[in-house]
Amino acid sequence: MPSTKYTKREIVYVDPLHTAKTLVLVYLSFSVPVVLLALFVAFVRDGELPGFTVISALILNALVGFGLLWLACKVYNWVADRFGGIEVAVKETTINDTKTTTAQD
After folding, report:
1. Which of 90, 71, 88 is CA-nearest to residue 12?
2. Model pTM?
3. What is the DSSP string of 23-67?
4. 87/89 Cα distance (integer angstroms)
5. What is the pLDDT of residue 43?
6. What are the 10-residue block averages of pLDDT along the chain, 105 residues in total?
7. Going by DSSP bridges, is the β-strand pair 7-11/86-90 parallel, antiparallel, or unpaired?
8. Sign of torsion, CA 85 91 94 97?
């Protein structure tokens, strides 16, 4: 790490419902194009694709993603409670530091 002073923090709990809701939207932004591509390949191969298949594939993708992310949060909370959570280094910044950093990115 650079010579900047950092404060060490530990993530000891994540809210499963809120985290799963947020992460499933991120997950869907990457997985929906893959699901649609798979459905397109199925359409080209079979010559038809019922609308129910498309809708059910997208809904199932969202539900399974949400469920697995919720479960992952629960498991993380269990592990963090017994063995410790993820440690991150954070530093205090001012508004000017934040604007300078984002302007460079």
Report:
1. 88
2. 0.69
3. HHHHHHHHHHHHHHHHHHHHHHHHS---HHHHHHHHHHHHHHHHH
4. 7
5. 86
6. 74 93 91 88 84 86 93 95 90 71 55
7. antiparallel
8. negative
